[in-house]
Amino acid sequence: MRLQAPKGTYDVLPLDQPRWHHLFDTTRRVLGRAGYQELTTPILEHAEVFEKAVGDAADLVVQKEMYTFEDRGGRHLTLRPELTAGVLRAFIERGMHTWPSPVKLWSAGPAFRAENVQRGRYRQFHQVNLEIVGSDSALADAEAIALMGDLLAALGLRRTVLKVGSVGDPDDRARYNAYLTQALAPHAEALSPTSRERLRLNPMRVLDSKDAGDQELVATLERPLDFLGEGARAHFGAVTGHLDDWGVAYEIDPAIVRGLDYYRRTAFEVHHQGIGAQSALGGGGRYDGLVRQLGGPDVPGIGWAMGVERLFDALEAEGVTATDRDRPLAFLVAMDEAAVSELAALARALRAEFRIEHAYVRRNPTKGLRDADRSGAIYAVLRGERERDAGVVMVKHLERGDQVEIPLEALADHLRAAARDEPQPSTSLHDAGVRTADRG
Ligand code: HAM
Question: Over the chain, what is the mean pLDDT?
């Protein structure tokens, strides 16, 4: 059998790396300026962490999607399907409630869900995640939502649609679920099998159905926003008030329902029309009660996550690309046997300052220049018997084609001057530039 990556997973090839660096560098910058600290939690957690967070019957779909296994010590472990539960486990375990409040954290990394694979839906995907733990202020909700927009804009995205709603307090949800159960009972037979199951376990999620028949029924129903109690209504008004004050563009979605069941009050999603059926770039909401549900103190919280792969799809749809400006400054070509080890030693010395590559074998000038070209280098530096006798190297600018002979000892100075003149910085490994393609 030919070895392959598991279904729903993929390799990030070298050419794809710049956009990952761009994404994480931009996230660190935008969220860092707002006082968020980076937290890295394990990819593996005890299954209990997610079972407690997601709830038992609450979302069978999420439960079924989890990769859970027993290790050799008989422990039930789960590959995290999302980052929030692990972040809150760390919050509790590390006593972060004693830190200055609220605790503002961001994280990024892989998550796993055993889903049906399709465009925008993978089994190993990646999230950028933000949490504010310890504040019930509407300002926290508004800041979380606004920062999501800020990050999307900083990445270069313009065509995103932010939808904000509220799923109410637990009492409101209970009333709405009771209403739904009653309103849909006479139509249960007409519902899709998934919606029928949801009607039994978590009626609100029927609103989420993609089935056309279900949607027709749903359109006749009242929405969660119509069922908000006084507290949730006032909170929602305050959140949208802040967003209006700050000039954040959003739409109110009275029927927003999130896939995960821990949300209270504010719920939001951001969509992009250019990336196919899985149009949600990200989503989140308030989860007061969840930290206590996980065995911690009774502190409120709000957060969001965005899907990295979907962000890349959206960036591609808008013609925004991160380019790798980190080309080698020079590629050294040995034209005889003696030059091979000579240039290898020279490359090691020059690398203290510049990005330098070289061939490991002797090359004739034609092949050597081709290698240099393919490496993306700005200069080729050639040396063979003739150059050795004269104590020089040949330096050729690969794009312009001009070449000069310079004494070997002068090479470092020459490259230093050249690096100053070239628009590309050649020293930073993580410096990916952003270019907006001409969409004419
Ligand atoms: P979520 O809506 O389940 O929320 O996931 C957030 C985002 O992750 C989605 O909008 C989507 O872009 C991406 N995503 C989810 N599943 C997949 C998949 N199979 N393949 C590719 N991308 C996917 C959460 O995970 C919550 N923990 C967000 C949150 C943080 N709420 C509060 N704090």
Answer: 91
